[in-house]
Design brief:
By secondary structure, the protein is mainly alpha-helical. The chain is built from 5 helices and no strands.
């Protein structure tokens, strides 16, 4: 299975995503009741996504400090960030789920951040050693 050497940019993007995901996980786990009251979001949603984010942050840390990684795994992480952003926006649009202004800001900020991480990770992936830069050009 093909592996690549991650670029410095990719490693930095993974570390930043890990730090943000870990901080959000701790916030959702340690301040669950308070967030539930302030955001009017289900405490189980905050709990389960917090648990998920702990594992996700650990995976990102491992990948950031690894010398060779699978491109398919990085693409999955990038796509997952896009899916997380879509889920945040969808949560705000659910019928019967009128988010508070604070919840809309909380979810909107998450969506914006993970899209920025996805773009940064994609740029870092493309700059990594072993990635193709496009179709091979032939001389006429």
């Amino acid at each position: 299975m093909k592996t690549i050497h991650p670029s410095g940019m990719l490693k930095a993007a993974l570390l930043a995503d890990a730090a943000a995901s870990g901080a959000l996980a701790l916030l959702q786990l340690l301040a669950n009741r308070m967030l539930t009251q302030w955001l009017a979001l289900d405490s189980r949603l905050l709990l389960y996504t917090g648990i998920f984010l702990l594992g996700y942050a650990n995976l990102l840390l491992v990948l950031a400090y690894t010398d060779r990684v699978w491109p398919w795994l990085l693409r999955l992480i990038i796509a997952g960030n896009g899916a997380w952003a879509a889920a945040c926006l969808a949560l705000m649009a659910l019928p019967g789920q009128a988010p508070t202004s604070l919840a809309a800001a909380y979810l909107g900020l998450q969506a914006a951040c993970v899209l920025a991480f996805a773009a940064w990770q994609h740029a870092g992936l493309m700059a990594s050693s072993g990635m193709r830069r496009g179709p091979a050009r032939t001389s006429p």
